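Protocol step 4 of 6: structure prediction from sequence.
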Amino acid sequence: MTARRPVAALAMLPDLPVRLFGSDAAERLGEVLDLLPGIMDSEGRFPGPVDEIEVLVAGWGAPLLDAGLLDRMPKLRAVVYTAGSTKGIMTAEAYARGVRVSTAAGANALPVAEFTLAAILLAGKRIFAISDEYRSTQDYRPPSARHARWGNNGVVAGIVGASRIGRRVIELLAPFDVEVLLYDPVAPDDVPGVTRVGLEELLRRSDVVSVHAPANAETHHMIDGAALALMRDGATLINTARGSLVDQGALVAELESRRLYAVIDVTDPDPLDAGSPLFSAPNLVLTPHIAGSQGNELLRLGDAALREAARYARGLEFADGVPESSLAHIA
């Protein structure tokens, strides 16, 4: 199938093109697209005319495709999104006007899953507790190193949500001697390597609980005080999904009691307000939303976007398209 070069524009933060595509970003994109100079900002402003744009190569900082912006871009037919969730850019109106969208969520899932895998294995080895106790007591083998459930041989990892990232975590856990429990009331029965259980059973049995559910009305504070109370003493909660899934007040209370541990990469709000109790909570590894693609990992997102742009130029369907039905439940 003969490729053509559709008229395209970038819509993202101004520093992203080089970080996504390298120093020769314009040249690489220009091989498959007729790229207009300039970058569209979050308000839909662009340094040139937009009525000929057929493809937006979008990323963090892109505008929402509302009716007003779509009216200005009557020829827009595709969005190649260089990040994960397309919820912040796509609308029902865009789908109604025939705009299709691809996502780099598959490429972005890998670093999140790698981060989660590392956190699960470190939690199983009780690294977080042992490090804190060793530094504070100078006891060569502090009490956490003598815990009955110390080590990753037979550790029980509970995965909440068989999302793209949740499934990747399950795949990465396969070579290890880890029992994997899965709670997801809507996922089909085709997730290998797991035991399907209810949420309460997962919380009671797991040494480590990792949350990978979407953020919506049904999942808001799904890990609340009652859920946290079900977790084993000394268990670890990992959240790399969305901050709203966890009741932070209830989590802080558990951390301050030193009954549970947590690895939290996403918060509510995100970023946190100054003086949030999470900053001073014990038994907590707190990171500023870095589990997803960062640094050189962004190049993987750019490569995925280039492949999708090339498919569109050849008249093919996106390999990782996002249907309108996903709008209701994507994070």
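Step 5 (inspection) to follow. The chain has a mean pLDDT of 95.
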